[in-house]
Design brief:
four-stranded antiparallel β-sheet, alpha+beta, binds iron/sulfur cluster, 165 residues, three-stranded antiparallel β-sheet
């Protein structure tokens, strides 16, 4: 198993967005007093020097008011997003991983992921069939053994599995 690697797709920060973080007060041009709305409490957020230009460009955020107020597109990288307060982001963001497995087809394209403990998320009908026939019946309660069995089962159908710790 390998360590989880964020692909900067931004989806978690788009979906959790303003339900997670609210700016209470602007303290300086780059410092903000914020409320973390899930577990409560406040924290001080500082926009990083390297992201100041990106942070000032609010065009995309203005079209998506439900996004986290600190999410911005990564300049020059279509489809990638950054947390402009990366070093001062709250604990809930630091500890979040969006999936425990990624599944790739034989061409190396990501076609599915496992969220939560064992929930498959995919639009690939062949993978769904393979999962229903081979993975769903697995009875083991041990997550490490389960992940290894899943990798073997999907591997026999041409998929590659990346499992995270
Ligand atoms: S944690 Fe997951 S959903 Fe969030 S940006 Fe990274 S890859 Fe995307
Ligand atoms: S603070 Fe950063 S990591 Fe957390 S939701 Fe906002 S953009 Fe995402």
């Amino acid at each position: 198993m390998t360590a989880f690697e964020c692909t900067l797709c931004g989806k978690c920060c788009m979906h959790a967005g303003d339900a997670l973080i609210e700016i209470e007060k602007r303290l300086t041009s780059r410092d903000f007093l914020c409320r973390q709305k899930v577990v409560g409490g406040t924290f001080r957020a500082r926009v990083e020097e390297r992201f100041l230009d990106a942070f000032r460009d609010t065009a995309e955020n203005d079209r998506h008011p439900s996004w986290c107020p600190f999410l911005r597109g990564l300049p020059g990288e279509e489809g990638k997003y950054i947390c402009t307060i990366h070093n001062s982001r709250p604990l809930i963001c630091r500890s979040y991983v969006c999936c425990t497995m990624r599944i790739f087809d034989s061409g190396g394209e990501e076609v599915g992921k496992v969220k939560g403990r064992r929930s498959l998320v995919t639009g690939d009908a062949d993978l769904v069939r393979c999962w229903d026939e081979g993975v769903a019946p697995l009875a083991t309660d041990d997550d490490i053994a389960w992940k290894s069995e899943v990798a073997a089962i999907l591997g026999r159908s041409g998929y590659r599995v990346e499992a995270y710790e």
